[in-house]
Design goal:
By secondary structure, the protein is α+β, with helices and mostly antiparallel strands. Helix content is 31%, strand content 14%.
Length: 180
């Protein structure tokens, strides 16, 4: 072989060119690198969370029944839906304290529709988890209904779920973003 050593080391010829898509540029994120906690919050989707199925009730449900459902199922809110299961409103523990406690409200004969928050802020499964956290922090929400494209509830993002998620992120690292 009459090739010089530096020519023999060149294992790729021009025909063997590696497409640019395989080798990320210096300013691209390497998909093989582990994500930091912040990247998980920004990139992971609501649909990746283990969200509880929401408790849904009709608008004509009494306040007494709504509160009983919340207590029996240990949830912080119920979603109010119409006959087609489309979201109309939300009734949460905060409503019990701010609209019912120390008031003269007939719980048996007052409907949940009269005290629900109509047309609540919702998100889809495709929303980043960070968006849920942002809305909760910005507006003081503890629950955000997750709906499909027809505005039918498919999940319920709660502050408790987001706290579990973020706690899990930080528990699996040394605090500097490196895995334990």
């Amino acid at each position: 072989d009459d090739q010089k050593p530096e020519e023999r080391r060149n294992v790729l010829s021009e025909e063997d060119h590696v497409p640019d898509a395989i080798i990320p540029s210096i300013d691209e994120e390497d998909p093989m690198e582990p994500k930091t906690e912040l990247q998980h919050l920004i990139n992971d989707l609501v649909g990746s969370l283990d969200l509880p199925k929401p408790q849904c009730i009709s608008p004509d449900t009494s306040l007494e029944a709504a509160i009983d459902i919340m207590a029996e199922t240990n949830v912080g809110c119920v979603l109010i839906v119409d006959g087609d299961n489309k979201l109309l409103g939300i009734f949460a523990q905060g409503d019990v304290f701010s609209k019912i406690a120390a008031q003269d409200v007939d719980l048996k004969n007052t409907t949940v529709e009269s005290l629900m928050t109509p047309d609540p802020t919702t998100l889809r499964r495709s929303a980043p988890i960070g968006h849920v956290l942002h809305l909760m922090a910005l507006h003081g929400f503890r629950h955000i209904p997750i709906v499909d494209r027809n505005n039918r509830p498919v999940g319920l993002a709660s502050f408790k779920q987001i706290l579990k998620f973020t706690g899990g992120l930080f528990a699996s690292t040394d605090g500097n973003g490196a895995a334990n």
